[in-house]
């Protein structure tokens, strides 16, 4: 079966690292499906604009076409570069959209299909932000009974991610 993408590229959140629990679990799903994985290290880079620049720079070296996966600030960063890097699709976990002081910088034109997963009890990024963004784009949205980190739903997220990748195939 010929895939419509070659690689999954992960972007972690502000408080995480390139191989946190969610990324490790989702990377295993991608590898089981025969897809290459990359995870960008943003540790020590707190500025979202600097993270966007880093992903634009390193993204040119990844096997195209690829899927961008981001969590929290990594979701914002992935969406911000999706059109420029011609991403095949986006899979975003509690993306940091419409955050105070950065509302105008929420990515609007991503140029590809997007699926979002968010927790109802997220006290960091309000679930309403993902509902708004998904609604404005007719993006797929899964809202789970969880908090911002979604750690207690990794198995469910992996199931959603597997389905997402298989449907893109």
CATH class: Alpha Beta
Q: Examine the coordinates and then state which fold CATH places here, giving the name of the CATH topology.
A: Rossmann fold
What is the number of strand segments?
Answer: 6
Helix share of residues?
A: 25-40%
Taking all residues together, what is the mean pLDDT? Answer: 95
The CATH homologous superfamily is called: Alpha/Beta hydrolase fold, catalytic domain
- Portion of residues in beta strands equals 15-25%
The total tally of domains equals 1
Tally of individual helices: 5
Looking at the structure, what is the overall shape?
Answer: globular
The ordered H/E elements are EHEHEHEEHEH
Low-confidence stretches: none
| Main β-sheet, spatial strand arrangement | 2-1-3-4-5-6
N-to-C span? 8 Å
Could you say which structural class the secondary elements and strand pairing correspond to? alpha/beta
Q: Tell me the CATH architecture.
A: 3-Layer(aba) Sandwich
Largest sheet: 6 strands, parallel
What's the gyration radius in Å?
A: 14 Å
Task: Provide a brief overview of the structure.
The chain has helices at about 20-30, 50-60, 75-80, 125-135, 155-169; strands at about 5-10, 35-40, 65-70, 90-95, 115-120, 140-145. The chain has about 170 residues and is of the alpha/beta class.
Tags for this model:
globular; alpha/beta; 36% helix; Rossmann fold; 5 helices; 169 residues; single chain; six-stranded parallel β-sheet
What is the fold's blueprint, element by element?
Blueprint: E1 7-11, H1 21-32, E2 36-40, H2 48-59, E3 66-71, H3 73-82, E4 89-93, E5 114-119, H4 127-137, E6 140-144, H5 154-168
Parallel strand pairs: 1-2, 1-3, 3-4, 4-5, 5-6
Helix pairs in contact: 1-5, 2-3
């Amino acid at each position: 079966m010929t895939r419509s993408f070659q690689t999954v590229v992960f972007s972690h959140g502000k408080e995480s690292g390139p191989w946190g629990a969610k990324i490790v679990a989702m990377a295993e799903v991608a590898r089981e499906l025969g897809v290459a994985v990359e995870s960008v290290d943003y540790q020590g880079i707190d500025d979202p604009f600097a993270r966007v620049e880093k992903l634009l720079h390193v993204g040119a070296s990844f096997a195209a076409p690829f899927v961008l996966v981001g969590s929290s600030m990594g979701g914002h960063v992935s969406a911000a570069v999706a059109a420029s890097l011609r991403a095949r699709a986006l899979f975003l976990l509690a993306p940091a959209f419409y955050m105070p002081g950065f509302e105008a910088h929420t990515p609007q034109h991503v140029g590809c299909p997007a699926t979002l997963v968010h927790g109802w009890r997220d006290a960091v990024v309000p679930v309403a932000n993902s509902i708004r963004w998904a609604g404005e784009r007719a993006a797929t949205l899964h809202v789970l009974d969880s908090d911002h980190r979604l750690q207690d739903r990794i198995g469910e997220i992996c199931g959603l991610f597997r389905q997402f990748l298989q449907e893109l195939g």
